[in-house]
Design brief:
The complex is a heterodimer of chains A (about 200) and B (about 220). Chain A is about 70% helix and about 0% strand. Chain A has about 200 residues and is mainly alpha-helical. Chain A is globular and about 60 Å long. Chain B is of the alpha+beta class. Classes of the chains: A mainly alpha (about 200), B alpha+beta (about 220).
Amino acid sequence: MQQSGKKILLNGLLNENPIFVLFLGMCPTLATTTSAINGLSMGLATFFVLFGSNVVVSILKNIIPDKVRIPAYVIVIATFVTVAEMLIHAYFPVIYESLGIFIPLIVVNCLILGRAEVFAAKNTVFRSALDGLGMGLGFTFALTLLGTIRELLGTGKVFGTIIFPDHYGAIIFVLAPGAFIVLGYLIAVVNKVRSRVS
Amino acid sequence: MKKLESNFINMVLVLTGIAIFAAVTIGSVYSLTKAPIEKTLRDKQQEAIRAVLPPYDHYDSKPVEMNNGVETTKVYKAYDKNNVLVGAAVESSSNNGYKGHIDIIVGFNKKGVIVNYLVLDQNETPGLGSRMVDWFKTDNARQNIIGKNATVAHLNVSADGGEIDAITAATISSRAFLFAVRNAYFEFKANTDMQVNDTKNEAEDALQQEDDSASTSINLK
């Protein structure tokens, strides 16, 4: 009953999209998507960590004794997060400023530990890499979409480009309640699309 | 390959091994990114100082630091070719923003006129308090603090009897911002006292000039 590689990849994008279907990692999702660029950069940072930790956990899965697997996974994940944080700080200072505390908090994003435990610990390196790729892209896509919609409705801009003057924007979409409202509608749309497809 | 058994020795060895590997990785990335990170921070600071100062030839890269127990203020004095003080950039802060700390840098010419300001760090509500980044530069007499002479202007929100309109729906952020501006002026004055009280005519000339250069710097923004 092995899934094909293509299926694993597509799983993360739609059928098991971490945000719209699995509801994993909601905290950074709601907090950082105040603009499209913030959503995109948070998505990419998480993508990097998820992909790296999936591969490494899968490589190490046989030498890690079962009883200490969680601490071992957490060390691997924390290492990737710290590396990502330093790289972003060094080469993308603007993104580092806008994401702030949420970069180190990727460590506790349950999506990453979840995929390590559920998928990478039981599958080959190649398949884990595919899973990391699919889930990472799905997460990035969802965050970017959420950020774009919130930025457009809240401030009239998309990626900083003005679409309509910002006094027509409803500021609530940039604030926390707007995150829940937009996420709710997006989940409804995705559910509709999934039921059509299947 | 069979999974390692969960006995004490295996667990200790594996965890130690992974931790050492993680430490080495982080250490090497740290040394790799140390220089770029420091350069980024330094560039950012220099750029900010440059952006808020009146026309100058050089400035003291070592600031006069003042600490009143709560806020640290840094005064970077700037000079012209003949080593005469032309103004200063003052890094100042307030802990009373809507979401805590606000860090700004304000430039004054030697008469105490605000040349420009930049918000270096803030966590105010996006779309409300965070508009301080350009709100107080907007070309509107009751909003704009640029070109105002801090010696005479009453830099406070109008709700508190001042002459500056607060950001719509973000009075707390505006108060904190203007507090930091006043604080910056206070330290500026304390550190450059001799220069502030000059003859009246000269003062007006300089004021006029600075007004021009201040408005060009707004346009550049």
